[in-house]
Amino acid sequence: xxxxxxxxxxxxxxxxxxxxxxxxxxxxxxxxxxxxxxxxxxxxxxxxxxxxxxxxxxxxxxxxxxxxxxxxxxxxxxxxxxxxxxxxxxxxxxxxxxxxxxxxxxxxxxxxxxxxxxxxxxxxxxxxxxxxxxxxxxxxxxxx
Length: 144
Fold this sequence. Notes:
Strand content: 5-15%
CATH class of the largest domain: Mainly Alpha
Number of domains: 2
Order of helices and strands: HHHEEHHHH
Number of helices: 7
CATH superfamily of the largest domain: Winged helix-like DNA-binding domain superfamily/Winged helix DNA-binding domain
Radius of gyration: 19 Å
Helix content: 55-70%
Distance between the termini: 42 Å
Oligomer: single chain
Number of strands: 2
Mean pLDDT: 88
CATH architecture of the largest domain: Orthogonal Bundle
Largest sheet: 2 strands, antiparallel
């Protein structure tokens, strides 16, 4: 499974919003500059994220986007599902009728395990977890 740029960029954008704080709107041009994403593409992503209820827009001269929920309330599986659809490895996992070997295929059971593992990881990670990871990477270590 390979995630699209759509999902990767959207996750980067909402991490940026989460790091900015909950009450301070962030303009698209700032997110675009910091994350090296075109503004046009970012506008499309934000429309999807807004419709899904992850972000909301704030109008006015100091407007922009903010998270619609607390970062610890946004699970990554929800974001991925909104942008990619369900996690799938092969067609026969979703539709066993697509292959006459589905009932006794050892490989199919492996692909099912892979999907379940991916889903479990995505469900266990919140946006706050990613913010914490990003902050851990920025801490300076002065040990000698």
